[in-house]
């Protein structure tokens, strides 16, 4: 299904009935990353998956997609579906988008899970890496995506989950260059939203991969201690929906149903 937002069509899926769960994918991912979770959650809930700007079947708006613009696209879908409250799970960039949405529409949130994601802004080193990657994207996109994907999995996981790694990589390679650059530029300028997350009146959870090289889990844990934010650590890397699939499913069910 599609809905118009500004000059783009936003692709989304809806499965099941009941209390709503909104699943937001990460950078170089699509709604397909949630395929194993949808059948489980849709038995008791309405599950809404959205392709973010420049990803999957959703088009681009320009050469920068801010997290606020992505959140606006998400809100347009939810408004179209008459959703007034929901549980949200955001993987990596999807977590950044969820936080941007929470800043503007906090009443939408029954719960929010930042899955392999962070409320922190990019530091200067990360911004520089994104700038270099965006230059490379214009001339050597396929190799860039392959290199980027190598860092998402723990070393052992790339062997253990060889098929899943290959499938996810093929999806990533279908993201247009413009979608890559626009999302990367948007992530580069996003603000720190720790205070937004801390004060959000909803159930809150951070999922951390112990071997995640993209997210500083120890620093997140130190920040969320003595706050209403819960956290859980999984054994592997950045791709918990593949590397820690059963544990992730159990944890999300607990969050939503508690």
From TrEMBL:
Domain AB hydrolase-1: 21-244
Pfam family, one: Abhydrolase_1
Transmembrane intervals: none
Alphabetical list of SUPFAM superfamilies matching this protein: alpha/beta-Hydrolases (SSF53474)
Keywords per UniProt: Hydrolase
GO molecular function: hydrolase activity
Coiled coil spans: none
PANTHER family (alphabetical): MONOACYLGLYCEROL LIPASE
Identification of the protein by name: Alpha/beta hydrolase
Organism: Winogradskyella bathintestinalis
